[in-house]
Specification:
Radius of gyration: 26 Å
Number of strands: 26
Shape: globular
Largest sheet: 8 strands, antiparallel
Strand order of the largest sheet: 3-2-4-1-10-9-11-14
Bound molecules: 2-deoxy-2-amino glucitol-6-phosphate
């Protein structure tokens, strides 16, 4: 989804906007643009592709001004062209607008406006919104800040969909207006300057004082003041929050890519996910943010875990982990299906919405649908200020720190850690003894060091990656809680190397998938020394019998795998409920090294974006 940033203040806006766009580029990188209020007019520069192309265009043809809006695009409506790049203008050409989200009824509105003589230059839904605001502004005749805010209200009441927008008008210098519904928008408070941005990473170099706008809120911003009101016209009591994010969180440091940096941050991100949540004395986990008493947790007779992409894979692993640790029936649902499925759920079903960004539209809609049906709906999120975090009935923060690489890595292992803590908590409330609880806590405390040890396999995994870099298709296989890890391994490889890959429960091979086996198709087996190890060995034999190359993720000290597999990666020994976390590490590194060897941009893979704020 797109990233927007607006600035109003005393400094030249271009450097502020370009730096902000670079920090938001993980949200979409199809095209970019800037519009500035300059000498009573609006100057605009756009470029297809990366922010670097836009910076180049501005360098060749500089523009100046201290108020401006800008955008980096993830295309939803209309191809990746200069015409479709934002900002977009109204019919008068005096109003410019940038937008993150989707206007679902744009075609109807567009047809009406065309019938009234409007001419559109792009295929985007956003240009329709600009024309709507411009039309209302012209009709109002009120050429003041209040007139512009009024026109925006009128236009937003006609649209169906999601938006995070910023608007400037050449006849109202010194004013920047923004609004949100469904897409995130934050107002940054500086000294005689203000910012509007899709997320705080774009503005933390300038301020840590922010207001997170809620749905249907409009901000009218000037150099030295701002007002927040609603689309329906009432005032808003807003809260100023302090951003904890450190500036170096948004830098790669010594790493060539954010993805590799975030893979190597996992010992500390997992430690942070457990910090203050393991009670050795009570031999259980403490998840105070759930806002539930043990009695209420004891009454839960079913859990539904929902999310998208990697978060869905964490949910699926969570199903295995919580059922084995707590003996509570767990179901996991794709959020995009859950929201329309009308799943029968009885009163004591507890729902968890899992999302790194906390802004994924389908997961947010699933949360709202679950609450609409009266279910207590908790969030497992990494972004404390996100919409899912703010709208859920409680939850657990992942504390994984900012994740910039589009491919989720540390957020995945943090989600698995929290789901394991949840299994321990619910298990101790049910059948797990104090001694069993202590053992699980003792094992979990060792996890960060075990993950650090797994990272030491990096070089050997790089060698394996180089060996299979030309393969056109991969299979990932695992059993029990390692089956979702196989799905995640396949997703990682697909999304950053564009190689076709799929994940399956190992035993499913015989029921069709084995037809894909040949000497060019590597199979990656997750086969730790657990209760189903021998079963995995038989499945590996079936693949070897058909000359399929096999890469196995096994447990330190294993000697059986090396006898039958082409390549073996041995992770540290751990109990079954922790091997999924350890097995994920070599799969992340394998996909990373294959993608790098293929020259792919691992941090900004094609066609993807970090948080999917449209349906
Ligand atoms: C994973 O690498 C992808 N970036 C994507 O599948 C992601 O997991 C999905 O969009 C869900 O995002 P969320 O956790 O922010 O909701």
């Amino acid at each position: 989804m797109c990233g927007i940033i607006g600035y109003i203040g005393g400094s030249e806006a271009v450097p502020v906007l370009l730096e902000g766009l670079r920090r938001l580029e993980y949200r979409g990188y199809d095209s970019a643009g800037v519009a500035l209020l300059s000498g009573g007019a609006i100057e605009v520069r756009k470029a297809v592709g990366r922010i670097a192309n836009l910076a180049e265009a501005i360098q060749q043809n500089p523009i100046h001004g201290t108020t401006g809006i800008s955008h980096t695009r993830w295309a939803t409506h209309g191809g990746v062209t200069l015409e479709n790049a934002h900002p977009h203008f109204d019919a008068s050409g005096h109003l410019a607008l940038v937008h993150n989200g989707v206007i679902e009824n744009y075609q109807t509105l567009r047809d009406r406006l065309i019938a009234e003589g409007h001419v559109f230059k792009s295929q985007t839904d956003t240009e329709v919104l600009a024309h709507l605001v411009g039309e209302a502004f012209e009709k109002s005749g009120d050429r003041t800040k209040e007139g512009l805010v009024g026109a925006l209200r009128q236009a937003l009441r006609q649209v169906i969909g999601t938006y995070g927008i910023a608007v400037i008008h050449s006849e109202i210098p010194g004013v920047l207006v923004g609004a949100r519904r469904g897409s995130p928008l934050v107002l940054g408070i500086g000294k005689d300057e203000h910012f509007l941005a899709s997320d705080v990473s774009a503005i933390i170099a300038h301020t840590r004082e922010v207001v997170y706008l809620n749905d249907y809120e409009i901000a009218a911003v000037e150099n030295d003041r701002f007002e927040i009101s609603t689309v329906s016209g009432s005032g808003v009591d807003f809260q100023v929050s302090k951003v904890e994010l450190s500036a170096d969180a948004v830098d790669k440091g010594k790493y060539p890519h954010f993805m590799l940096k975030e893979i190597y941050e996992q010992p500390s991100s997992i430690r942070d996910a457990m910090r203050g949540r393991l009670s050795a004395e009570e031999a259980t986990a403490k998840l105070g943010g759930l806002n539930m008493t043990n009695g209420e947790l004891r009454a839960v007779d079913r859990i539904v875990l929902t999310g998208c992409g990697t978060a869905f894979h964490a949910a699926l692993a969570g199903e295995y982990l919580i059922e084995s640790l707590a003996h509570v029936p767990v179901e996991c649902e794709f959020a995009s299906e859950f929201r329309y499925r009308n799943l029968p759920m009885d009163r004591d079903t507890l729902v968890f919405a899992i999302s790194q960004s906390g802004e994924t539209a389908d997961t947010l809609a699933a949360l709202r649908e679950s609450q609409r049906k009266g279910h207590r709906t908790l969030g497992i999120c990494n972004n404390v200020a996100s919409t899912i975090a703010r709208e859920s009935d409680g939850g657990a923060y992942m504390h994984a720190g900012l994740e910039i690489g589009v491919a989720a890595t540390k957020s995945f292992t943090s989600q698995l850690t929290i789901l394991t803590l949840l299994g321990l908590l619910l298990g101790r409330i049910r059948h797990l003894s104090h001694a069993e609880g202590r053992t699980i806590i003792h094992e979990m405390e060792k996890l960060p060091d075990l993950v650090a040890k797994a990272l030491e396999l990096d070089e050997s995994i790089q060698r394996v990656a180089k060996k299979y870099v030309s393969a056109k298709n991969f299979l990932f296989l695992g059993r029990q809680a390692n089956y979702p890890i196989a799905l995640e391994g396949a997703l990682k490889l697909k999304e950053i190397s564009y190689i076709s890959a799929s994940g399956y429960p190992s035993a499913e091979l015989k029921h069709g998938v084995i037809a894909l086996i040949n000497e060019e198709t590597p199979s990656v087996f997750i086969a730790p020394q657990d209760a189903v190890f021998d079963k995995n060995i038989s499945n590996i034999e079936e693949v070897k019998a058909r000359k399929g190359p096999v890469i196995a993720i096994g447990t330190e000290g294993d000697t059986a795998l090396a006898k039958i597999c082409d390549d073996v990666i041995l992770i540290p020994h751990a109990p079954d409920y922790l091997t999924p976390i350890l097995s994920a590490i070599p799969l992340q590194l394998l996909s990373y090294h294959i993608a790098v060897a293929l020259g792919c941009d691992v941090d900004k893979p094609r066609n993807l974006a970090k948080s999917v704020t449209v349906e």
